[in-house]
């Protein structure tokens, strides 16, 4: 019996270790002694920052703290991170977990830097970003109207532990707040609303917080992003991003008047232009879409980045959408490291598109050189890896392996590096140039063979004789040249005789030259005769 | 010989046999000409981007993309519901697929070899590619007519002749670009066939006819090439008249006609046209004549003169009356298509203007002005008669062909601007013949001036000074007078305007920088992304192809103007008052209306300037009979948009859509609000509201304005 229980325990341990199903229990001894919350709704995102002073009232040390996401925000969470207040530069490990009995809630386990001893306190700072929480209200506005949005969430800090004292500050986009929940104590100053302190709230306590504010920040959402990274070992990495954007704020109702838009500069919440920061080494930036180049962009080179000011073809009003392609090249030495045949690519998983960006869906494709093997991926956060693809482009034979990654709901905080390790044999770099060289070599060879060999079955007499004539003419020419050279040497001989007065030498040389001359003249005559016969023959044909 | 030895390159050249030198020079000149003809056409890609131009090419591009993505069978069965709402269009059966098949083939071959290239780039670069092929074909064509040197001159001229460049720049993806290649190829092979009389070459003609199915049968679509199909029969007829008919011609023509007709009938759109429509009758008639002529020749060789004469007369009478009766009966029964309007307009330039407004409304169908002859052909205008002269001095069967081609095409080019394209190649060929003949005659005298000093005693030919003068003028660049040979390239500057893609407009800003008006694409892209997928867009037919290709929305009428009444209906809507127009728009399920308005930027080919055509076409059918052109003029007969303008004009839908809220805009300093920069007046009706439409989008420079058609009012309201 005991062995059976032991076996079950072992099995459970085995399963939990391998299936990565984190299971936690709520430690009843932990108390949030002081919570300070900041909800930033100045943009279209909801950014929360929570400072929690955790107190361990139990007898034993505590290793981790459970953070539960507010049910109203649960499905909007895009990013979460935590640090201890005293060690801000060291990120704590935050991992998703489950708590039995609370299956509908989203728990995160924050592993503390060091176990929290009994009776001690530690202050954690949890930062979280939520997208698509703010709802435009009214949901459709005219061009001249301003955009109002509503935030509905929990007034209290939502926690599995009891909270002794808590305060909440909401930062609004402007001082124009239509209405807000007036649970006392509450105070409103310029762009912030302060709630609290509220004392002694139990675990999972809830109350409505509703804020209706004017928010004209453009509610721009990247609905789909496809990022292609193509690596060339010749020293270049090409990046291309296909971006679908949509204005997810209050929908434009009624006409769009260009006159008012130009004259009164209204359309407060519309997107006129935005700025994308590319890596400082980015070159050959292009901005286009399906129907061609978009001429409205400006490029500015800064020290740390290349800023591209992009203007969509048309201003984006609520509910309008568009898409574009932005591409550039970066030198590979900045991102590609190697050791022998082992290569490592270290690049950003996602890059800056605009400030406070939201990306609903993203697909990252990394095209490796042909023949890359042993691909190994390291990512900074959880992503979904799709099956690898094969991509064919210029002169490929086997195709290039493509790593495909997928992730949803990304924000600026996701701009982090990933690493991709692979092996690639260097000689393969020469494969394609050699192929071209080989092809041309073959082509020329074939032409040479074709030109040199006579493939005709019949004999073309006229052509033959023409060729004979031309060789004869050549011979005549050379004979003639030599003969005229003889005259020169005759001259030389005369001059020599004039100076030396050596009669015998002169006579011998003259004789020799005369003989040569006679020979050549004879030769030319012969050739002429031959030519004559040849031409008469040719004339016959 | 010694002089030349100084330069290494020439020495190396001289060492080769004359044969090789000849080949090398020819190859080099031809290659250079081909490269030149490709590269001169790339200006717009370099200055702007690789993009399709104009209107028709967008349709071709769209269909090519469809063909490349969906395959031939889907293409063949393609019913396009994006155009001609609510009628739709059966694309597969109503186009000549040659162009699309060619580019889809190139696309697939390139991608098969893993040379990644997208369909758009294939389409953009197809015309330059084919024009460099044309250069090579021209060489062979002229070589067949005269000799290789004339061919080289003709080829180099063709590479840069403005009349052809303007139709084949990168991005103008149209039938014309490849049709000229096919046409010249056909003619080359035809000449070859006539010269040799062998079936081998004649069957090659077929191959090329098949290749240019669309060229040959584009005929029926725009009439321009009517004379092209008829040129070969005409040539044969002329040879018969001049007594040059022989077995060679009989063999060549019979083969070409029979096989060519059968093969061209395989294109589903062509169908039975080659034997039914009157435009093709000449070919059939000449075919018949050929048989008779051959038969008569045969009889003559077997009979005595006396018997033959009696037989001949009776036969002529009999056959003539039978043929006439048959033609009359066939026409009466409708078996032979009646002469189409476009054909008449070729013979009589004023015909179309008087009878079919839709034909006359296209600027390409206007008669050519004298200046455009010079701007499109430059020097060739003067070389053409020289070439003709040299052809006449040595008449051959082939020369008769080129003479006929030259003379007929110069007539047709005078009728329609568009046919300038057909004229350009023959101008180059004849110009090449002329130039080369002149050069061979006078070039011998060019060396003389240098020798003259040494051997002053040498007797000079009596007409020597004249010859020398001619030559110096022709080709000596050091001479004071301008070398004529260089004339053509230097005038290419005129072409700059042709090389701007019409989809993007550019202007000079105050500080000299270039301002780009990209409003067309702005509007089309807005339509593509921010209207419902099934929205119907009403616009004048000029923009139909662009809207379907770039905005991917359903349109009512497009550049394939096959249904006159439908276009007329759109014209009526544009020319009516708002209430009337609303009825028409409801009837046609219109959701959006798009107009082009240049009043703010000064873009002159906008819809207000085209408006009279809309009125004319709108009023040309029964349902639009209430629309009278005169109502839109002032009593003095002027077309004005200011206060003096006709009230009918100032209250019609087109006026309102163009000038909605324009009345409060300042366009130019020192001028009142609502000053139209195209018409140069202050508009007459400034303050009005639209009842049945609402402004949906207006582009940055107001070039394109899109309106949404409001729904019917709620009953209760």
Structural summary, described in words:
The complex is a heterodimer of chains A (541) and B (717). With 541 residues, chain A is of the alpha+beta class. In chain A, 23% of the residues lie in helices and 44% in strands. Chain A is built from five helices and 33 strands. In chain A, the strands form seven sheets. Chain A has an eight-stranded mixed β-sheet, with no helix packed on it. An eight-stranded mixed β-sheet of chain A has the order 23-22-26-19-18-29-32-31, with no helix packed on it. In chain A, strand 31 and strand 32 form a beta hairpin. In chain A, helix 4 runs antiparallel to helix 5. The longest helix of chain A is centred in the C-terminal third of the chain and has 40 residues. By secondary structure, chain B is mainly alpha-helical. Chain B is 59% helix and 5% strand. In chain B, the strands form four sheets. Chain B has a five-stranded mixed β-sheet with strand order 6-5-7-11-10, sandwiched between helices. In chain B, strands 1-2 form a two-stranded antiparallel ribbon. A two-stranded antiparallel ribbon of chain B has the order 3-4. In chain B, a hairpin with a 5-residue loop joins strand 3 and strand 4. In chain B, helix 12 crosses helix 13 and helix 31 packs across helix 33. Chain A: Pfam families: Ribophorin_I. Chain A: Keywords: Coiled coil, Endoplasmic reticulum, Membrane, Signal, Transmembrane, Transmembrane helix. Chain A: Its main location: endoplasmic reticulum. Chain A: Component of the oligosaccharyltransferase (OST) complex. Chain A: This is Dolichyl-diphosphooligosaccharide--protein glycosyltransferase subunit 1.
């Amino acid at each position: 019996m005991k062995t059976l229980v032991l076996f079950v325990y072992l099995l459970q341990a085995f399963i939990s270790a391998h299936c990565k199903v984190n299971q936690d229990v709520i430690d009843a001894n932990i108390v949030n002694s002081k919570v300070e919350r900041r909800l930033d709704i100045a943009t279209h995102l909801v950014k929360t920052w929570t400072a929690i002073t955790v107190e361990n009232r139990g007898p034993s040390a505590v290793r981790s703290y459970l953070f539960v996401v507010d049910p109203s925000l649960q499905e909007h969470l895009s990013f979460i991170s935590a640090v201890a207040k005293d060690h801000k530069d060291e990120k704590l490990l935050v991992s998703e977990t489950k708590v039995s009995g609370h299956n509908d809630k989203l728990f995160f386990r924050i592993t503390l830097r060091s176990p929290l001893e009994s009776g001690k306190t530690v202050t954690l700072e949890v930062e979280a970003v939520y997208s698509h929480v703010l709802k435009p209200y009214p949901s459709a506005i005219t061009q001249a109207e301003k955009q109002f949005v509503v935030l509905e969430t929990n007034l209290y800090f939502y926690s599995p532990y009891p909270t002794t004292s808590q305060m909440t500050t909401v930062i609004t986009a402007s001082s124009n707040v239509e209405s807000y929940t007036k649970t006392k104590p509450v105070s409103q100053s310029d762009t912030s609303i302060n709630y609290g302190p509220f004392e002694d709230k139990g675990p999972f306590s809830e109350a409505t917080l509703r804020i209706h504010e004017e928010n004209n920040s453009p509610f721009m959402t990247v609905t789909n992003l496809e990022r292609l990274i193509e690596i060339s070992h010749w020293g270049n990495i090409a990046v291309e991003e296909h971006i679908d954007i949509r204005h997810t704020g209050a929908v434009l109702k009624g006409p769009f008047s260009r006159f008012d838009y130009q004259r009164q500069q209204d359309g407060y919440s519309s997107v006129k232009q935005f700025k994308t920061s590319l890596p400082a080494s980015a070159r050959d930036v292009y901005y286009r879409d399906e129907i061609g180049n978009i001429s409205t962009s400006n490029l500015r080179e800064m020290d740390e980045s290349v800023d591209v000011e992009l203007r969509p073809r048309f201003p984006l009003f609520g509910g309008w959408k568009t898409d574009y392609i932005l591409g550039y090249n970066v030198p590979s030495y900045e991102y590609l490291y190697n050791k022998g045949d082992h290569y490592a690519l270290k690049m950003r998983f996602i890059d800056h598109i605009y400030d406070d960006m939201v990306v609903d869906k993203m697909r990252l494709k990394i095209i490796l050189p042909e023949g890359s093997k042993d691909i190994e991926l390291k990512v900074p956060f959880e992503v979904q890896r799709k099956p690898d693809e094969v991509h064919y482009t210029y002169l490929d034979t086997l195709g290039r392996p493509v790593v495909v990654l997928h992730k949803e709901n990304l924000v600026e905080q996701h701009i982090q590096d990933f690493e991709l390790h692979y092996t690639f044999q260097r000689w393969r770099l020469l494969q394609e140039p050699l192929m071209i060289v080989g092809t041309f070599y073959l082509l020329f060879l074939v032409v040479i063979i074709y030109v040199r060999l006579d493939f005709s079955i019949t004999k073309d007499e006229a052509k033959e004789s023409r060729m004979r004539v031309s060789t004869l003419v050549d011979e005549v020419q050379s004979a003639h040249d030599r003969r005229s050279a003889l005259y020169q040497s005759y001259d030389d001989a005369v001059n020599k005789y004039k100076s030396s007065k050596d009669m015998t030498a002169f006579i011998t040389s003259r004789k020799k030259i005369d003989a040569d001359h006679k020979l050549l003249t004879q030769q030319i005559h012969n050739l002429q005769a031959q030519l004559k016969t040849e031409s008469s023959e040719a004339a016959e044909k | 010989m010694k002089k030349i030895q100084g330069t290494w390159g020439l020495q190396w050249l001289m060492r080769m046999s004359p044969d090789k030198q000849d080949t090398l020079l020819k190859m080099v000149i031809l290659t250079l000409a081909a490269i030149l003809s490709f590269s001169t056409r790339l200006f717009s890609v370099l200055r702007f981007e690789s993009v399709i131009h104009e209107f028709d090419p967008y349709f071709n591009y769209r269909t090519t993309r469809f063909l490349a993505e969906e395959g031939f069978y889907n293409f063949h069965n393609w019913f396009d519901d994006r155009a001609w709402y609510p009628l739709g269009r059966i694309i597969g059966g109503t186009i000549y697929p040659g162009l699309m098949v060619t580019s889809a083939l190139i696309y697939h071959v390139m991608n098969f070899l893993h040379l990644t290239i997208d369909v758009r780039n294939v389409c953009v670069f197809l015309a330059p590619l084919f024009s460099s092929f044309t250069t090579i074909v021209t060489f062979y064509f002229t070589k067949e007519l005269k000799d290789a040197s004339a061919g080289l001159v003709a080829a180099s001229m063709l590479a840069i002749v403005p009349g052809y460049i303007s139709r084949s720049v990168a991005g103008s993806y149209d039938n014309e670009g490849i049709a000229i290649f096919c046409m010249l190829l056909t003619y080359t092979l035809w000449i070859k066939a006539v010269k040799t009389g062998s079936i081998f070459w004649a069957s090659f003609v077929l191959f090329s006819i098949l290749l240019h199915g669309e060229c040959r049968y584009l005929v029926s679509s725009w009439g321009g090439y009517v004379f092209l199909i008829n040129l070969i029969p005409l040539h044969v007829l002329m040879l018969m008249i001049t007594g040059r008919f022989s077995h060679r011609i009989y063999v060549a023509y019979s083969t070409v006609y029979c096989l060519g007709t059968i093969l061209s009938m395989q294109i589903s759109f062509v169908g039975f046209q080659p034997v039914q429509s009157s435009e093709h009758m000449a070919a059939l008639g000449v075919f018949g004549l050929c048989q008779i002529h051959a038969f008569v020749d045969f009889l003559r060789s077997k009979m005595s003169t006396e018997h033959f004469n009696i037989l001949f007369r009776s036969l002529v009478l009999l056959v003539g009356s039978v043929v006439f009766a048959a033609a009359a009966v066939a026409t009466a029964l409708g078996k032979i298509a009646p002469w189409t309007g476009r054909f008449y307009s070729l013979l009589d330039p004023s015909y179309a203007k008087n009878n079919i407004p839709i034909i006359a409304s296209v600027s390409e169908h206007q008669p050519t002005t004298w200046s455009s002859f010079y701007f499109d052909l430059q020097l060739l205008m003067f070389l053409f008669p020289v070439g003709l002269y040299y052809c006449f001095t040595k008449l051959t069967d082939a020369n008769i062909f080129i003479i006929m081609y030259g003379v007929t095409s110069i007539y047709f080019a005078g009728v329609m601007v568009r046919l300038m394209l057909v004229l350009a190649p023959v101008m180059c060929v004849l110009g090449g013949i002329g130039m080369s003949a002149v050069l061979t005659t006078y070039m011998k005298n060019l060396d003389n001036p240098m020798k003259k000093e040494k051997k002053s005693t040498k007797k000079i030919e009596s007409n020597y000074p004249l010859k020398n003068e001619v030559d110096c003028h022709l080709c000596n660049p050091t001479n004071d007078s301008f070398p004529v040979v260089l004339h053509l390239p230097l005038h290419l500057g005129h072409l700059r305007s042709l090389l701007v893609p019409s989809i993007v407009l550019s202007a000079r800003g105050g500080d000299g920088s270039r301002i780009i008006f990209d409003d067309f694409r702005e509007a089309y892209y807005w339509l593509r992304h921010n209207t419902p997928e099934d929205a119907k867009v009403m616009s004048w037919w000029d923009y139909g192809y662009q809207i379907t290709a770039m905005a991917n929305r359903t349109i009512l009428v497009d550049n394939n103007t096959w249904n006159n009444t439908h276009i007329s209906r759109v014209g009526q809507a544009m020319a009516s008052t708002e209430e009337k127009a609303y009825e028409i728009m409801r009837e046609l399920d219109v959701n959006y209306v798009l107009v082009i308005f240049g009043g703010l930027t000064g873009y002159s080919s906008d819809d207000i300037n085209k408006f009279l055509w809309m009125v004319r076409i709108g009023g040309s059918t029964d349902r639009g009979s209430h629309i009278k052109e005169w109502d839109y003029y002032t009593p003095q007969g002027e077309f004005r948009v200011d206060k003096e303008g006709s009230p009918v004009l100032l209250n019609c839908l087109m006026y309102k859509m163009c000038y909605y809220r324009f009345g409060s805009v300042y366009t130019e300093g020192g001028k009142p609000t609502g000053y139209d920069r195209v018409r140069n007046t202050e508009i007459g009706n400034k303050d009005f509201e639209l009842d049945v439409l609402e402004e949906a989008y207006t582009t940055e420079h107001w070039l394109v304005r899109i309106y949404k058609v409001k729904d019917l009012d709620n009953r209760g309201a």
